[in-house]
Specification:
homodimer; about 400 residues; alpha/beta; six-stranded parallel β-sheet; about 20% strand
Chain lengths: ~400, ~400
């Protein structure tokens, strides 16, 4: 890593699949002027040819390690299947290379804690590709939560079921939607964005109860629908529902406060504000069936640009100027803790406390290992190997991971 | 009971509190021409005076038994606190008197099964006051579910948190919101209407997981917020969220089907219909990120009149002409099974199967008894006795129990 004052971050991409090629398209379109793609690595020669065809001057490597040792990059995007995120992120940190990791950061929370410790020791920047954090409506919502003007959160509910995927999506890669390849389903692949935003807005829960439906809509062994009930500090509660089986699906996020309600749906933030805190009204109203005064406002904000490029730009700015990251690696633990706990709760039928106790973590690993074994022996109905059809353009890629209302 | 062909049902009212006086107001307003109130019974002399002042010709009794033995009534409304519903309903059936019971039918499912058996043996009509079943939007929704044109239900979600009650409501009767007086909170008192409608629309679940927050918003020992996750036959799932602590609260019911989605909110039924079943599309689409064709329609229907009077009219018609009941007593078991199971799940942190096994029922009774004992010894923070302020007019009573959007 160069210690001189730089004007551009030299970026390497580990894995030129769906996400990696999307990032290349974004950078080539001029959306991240502080980033230059100088190298790519992929074990699939066809993906390297694809990269060469897009960026003739790029250096290509058959292994990530060769690229990391080449001296050609200051930072890397890790865009390989989930199970390999911790391995390559740690390889980068060993060499003092900054990392932007695709979500989820790993499959187990323990790994992600180690990754954060390694980043800290190496003194490098570790960011998570939670691109939806850049959406102006979520940012507005967070601003209102943090302002304190609505008081404490009492209840949250997010129905985020518009991650629809037909079977063809799952058949596009044999690693997809398997316990061995991804370590989970919709909670690990599509909804981490939303679980992250949920904790970004409402904080971390103390316990969850969950029901995950495995193979409800598709020929897959992992869950394609999940429902989580969470208990937060101070008595607040929350429900999170996600699915890849609903067409067109719903995206509706409701936060209830002492002094009002924020409701995000159809690209609109609806704000109900109480004239007096419900807490005060509850204990002073003489009438048994009264309501406090309520005012209503609607906020419509249109996204300025694609969230992935905003996250990359923020990442580059942090590397170059030391500004705080919008989506730091330490937050990768939060959404993963929730999905780990949700699986454990669903499999055992029991309420699970957070942070996961060593006993809960051991039970989770044991049950996940059993799922993987059953899958590998064919008992869980795995799918055959299929071609990885990841030769996609930038616009489709953007649409795929950007908030849909 | 008269065996002659009658033109009017002679009705007695057991309990002239909030609900009983509301029914009197409705009938006096001419909304149930096939019903005549001929007698009332209440242990509180002030309530009998109230009845006399409204209906000078009515016969008044200090005990229900005297009224039931008087020969003055063919049918009775049971409108006493929940714990007494089974007792008085059974007293009626012993004497061949038809019954319309306020909800919930009882506090334990076992009681309600016995009540239904007794009604059958006596050959009398047993109806439940699920007045919201008469709402034209819920009726339209049921018609669309039953039509089969949307295929099977895959997921349901109901956020019904607009049952707001300030503390003054709970303080209006010492029996309110206690384990001893009502046997539960929002699930037993306010939301039975919605739990009933949920099962009326989506059927009975096979299992539930639930979290009930006791005294979250009020100085009460029972739950004022509840969240239920349900598993239905065929893999469908559902979430039900209710609360008396949110001002103004939400009423949003979503049913997702193979061929579309029905969404009820703000007095409007939004219908999304797919051109092809999602099941077919899922396995025939060649594209990994496609959606089937969708058409949208909005249905707005305004209620013609108050639901309580429609239920009473339907009850009278069944007694006089034998037409099927819109809201039969046998359905009282459904919502009660769900609330019993939800309490058990919340208390134990475990998934609970339905119908409740004898072991689950025994565990539920044991835990409920412990709650009652703790309450009676003052450990659970019971409130002091307060005046029952139930001298209310018909319009407030109607508004209180009618669907709010």
């Amino acid at each position: 890593m160069s210690t001189q004052k730089q004007s551009k971050v030299r970026l390497g991409i580990i894995g030129v699949g769906n996400m990696g090629s999307g990032h290349i398209a974004n950078i080539l379109a001029g959306r991240c002027p502080e980033i230059e793609v100088t190298a790519v690595a992929d074990i699939n020669p066809a993906r390297l040819d694809y990269a060469r065809s897009k960026i003739p001057e790029v250096a290509v490597f058959n292994t990530a390690e060769e690229m990391l040792d080449s001296g050609l990059i200051d930072a890397a995007i890790v865009a390989v299947p989930h199970y390999f995120h911790p391995k390559y992120v740690l390889e980068c940190f060993k060499r003092g290379i900054h990392v932007m990791s695709e979500k989820p950061a790993g499959v187990y929370t323990k790994q992600v804690r180690e990754m954060n410790e390694a980043a800290k020791s190496a003194g490098v920047v570790f960011g998570m590709m939670f691109n939806q954090r850049t959406d102006c409506l979520y940012r507005k919502m967070r601003e209102l939560v943090q302002s304190g003007k609505y008081g404490n959160i009492r209840r949250t509910s997010w129905i985020i079921t518009n991650w629809y995927r037909p079977q063809a999506y799952y058949d596009s890669g044999a690693w997809r939607a398997t316990w061995s390849g991804e370590g989970g389903g919709v909670l690990l692949n599509q909804a981490p964005h939303n679980v992250d935003l949920w904790t970004w807005l409402a904080g971390m829960p103390l316990a969850v109860r969950a029901g995950c439906s495995e193979g409800k809509y598709h020929r897959i062994g992992v869950e394609d629908e999940a429902t989580i009930y969470a208990e937060f500090p101070g008595g607040a509660t929350g429900v999170f529902i996600t699915s890849t089986g609903e067409a067109p699906g719903t995206n509706r996020l409701e936060l209830v406060f002492d002094r009002g309600r924020l409701l995000l749906e159809n690209g609109r933030l609806n704000v109900l504000r109480l004239g007096v805190s419900e807490r005060e009204f509850c204990f002073t109203s003489k009438a048994g069936y009264a309501l406090p005064d309520i005012t209503e406002e609607n906020i419509v904000l249109r996204p300025e640009r694609d969230g992935h490029s905003l996250i990359l730009e923020d990442f580059a700015r942090t590397i170059l100027s030391g500004t705080p990251l919008l989506s730091p690696g330490r937050d990768g633990v939060n959404e993963l803790s929730i999905s780990n706990a949700a699986y454990l709760s669903s499999w055992t039928g029991r309420r699970v406390e957070l942070p996961l106790s060593p006993a809960s973590m051991a039970e989770f690993h044991k049950l996940l290992t059993a799922k993987r074994s059953a899958e590998q022996s064919g008992a869980a109905g795995t799918r055959g190997e299929a071609a990885n059809t990841s030769d996609i353009g930038g616009s489709e890629y953007n649409a795929r991971w950007t908030t849909r209302w």
